[in-house]
Structures are given as structure tokens and as C-alpha cells.
Amino acid sequence: MSQVVFVLLPGVHLLDLAGPAQAFHSAAVLGESYRLWYVAEREQVPSAQGLPLAAETRWPELGPDDLVVVPGWRGPTLRDAPPPRAEDLARLRAHHAAGGTVASVCAGAEALGQAGLLDGRRCTTHHDLQDELAARYPRATVVRDVLFTIDDRVVTSAGIASGIDLALHLLSVRHGPAVAAKVARDMVVYARRNGHEPQASAMLRYRSHVDDTVHRVQDLIDSRFAEPLPLAYLAARAGVSERTLTRAFTRATGGLTPLRYQQALRLERAQHLISHGTVVESAAREVGFEDARMLRRLRAH
User: Fold this and answer.
1) Fold designation for 2-171
2) Active-site annotation holds for 123
3) I need a surface site. Which of 48, 131, 173, 200 has the fewest CB within 10 A?
């Protein structure tokens, strides 16, 4: 079972916390193995919206597959933020050093900065705080006006609703796009936004359009991308001709055919498997390629 630990500071913004928490909770309800924890200095944490939150004061034992998230909090500046506990900062550093992933939503990037995890890495935060974050951590590269960034298992997002986009991306990378699409549907949100970054999942990168027919076909490809999906079959499921589907799909995705979109999903999943130790030949078979030649060709480009 993977654990997701939310580090709560006084004045935490409810949506910074609730968005990603709901995404991972929904994934657990849908069958993925997650346990959520909430840790803080005290057992009761005041939120920015006035609702008190209950928390644990002790951290669970963590492994490399676990995720630690610092949601944002109320405050006009980062300098005025409630200081994280030295124990929390040490835990963030140790978890990352042990191969784990750490993430922040909105002003939570300040905690990662205090832990020394932004130095030499790309990061982002809410647009109102970007200049201050850059000034406070000059060794970091603050990427402006994006929804999220990922750099060496240090994940930062812009804040508020972007925490949902971040969580969906992490679920897509870990479990494949079909799981993230199911979570998005369970939450009744459109899984369409992306971080405008190379690391953004293909499921999100090519969803920034309003063509319902293309979205339905993408949903089908997302859930079955490892299977052969002939154009005729996709067109029949969408209730349009092959030519109409190809034209609509290409227009909506900025130039991709359904086949190319499916290959993008396969490539992304294969690269994730390879990065976790799977050999190229096995990764190619798992994502639906007959052999590794096509996968090697796609990776070369």
C-alpha cells in the first residue's frame, strides 16, 4: 500500500488540501492501494476558511513509493508563513533522499524551499507568489504561469485547483491514463488541463479542447491503449465516419491522429516502466507493441 502524507500548517487552504486528497482517495475507492495521512504540530489545525482539521502529530514510516504533500496556507507573503517544524523539514529531506517524491501546492513550495529541495531545480507556485519565491530561493528556477512542474521527484503546483491537476498527473504516471481518467470522472472534473511541461502526461497534454466526440474517443483509448484499436472501430464507437473522426481528432489535438495519440500513451507508460527497472523488451510487450523496435524508434524521437 502506498501512503500519501499531507503536512498541514496553520491556515492551510482547504482546496489546496482537499483537491489532491480527494483524487488519491478516489483512486483508493476505485481499487488502487492508498492510505492517506494528515500530520501537523498539533492535533487540531485551523484552516484559512475557519474549519478546524484533525491531524496526527507523528509521521508514519515511509518508503520510496510514498508521497509527501505540503498544501498551501493563508498569507499575503511567503515570509509571513507559519514556520514548518524542524522535524517536518528533516522528514521532507530524508524522504526525498531515500528515493521518495515530495510535492507542494501553492505556498507549500516555501516549505520545500526551507528544506533545501528547490535548490538547482525547477519549481512553481501561485502567480502572486512567484517573484517572492524566486527572490527567496535564487538557486531555484521558478517557472512562471504554469500549473505544475516536476524535477527529480520534487513536484510543485500553482495552487488552489491546480493541486487536482497535479494529483491526476501523478496517478496517470504511476498507474496509467485509464486510472487517472476514472478518478477524474469520479470527481466530476474535466481531466483536460496540463502543466505545459514536457513531463505532463499525454492524457492531459492533448485534452485542452472542447470537442466531445474526440474526448469520448480519447476516453476509450485511455482505458485500452495497450490493445489494437483500429480506426474503423473507434469511428463506429463515436458514431462518425473514419474521415470525420481523423479530421476532428487532428484538429482538436494539434496534429495527432488517433493512432499517434495511442502511441504517445504507450510510449509514456513504457518510459515509466523502464525508469523503474523494466527491460525495454518487456515494457514494449506490456504496453501493446509486438516487439521493442517500434518503442525504440519512438523513444529516439
Assistant:
1) Rossmann fold (3.40.50)
2) no
3) 131
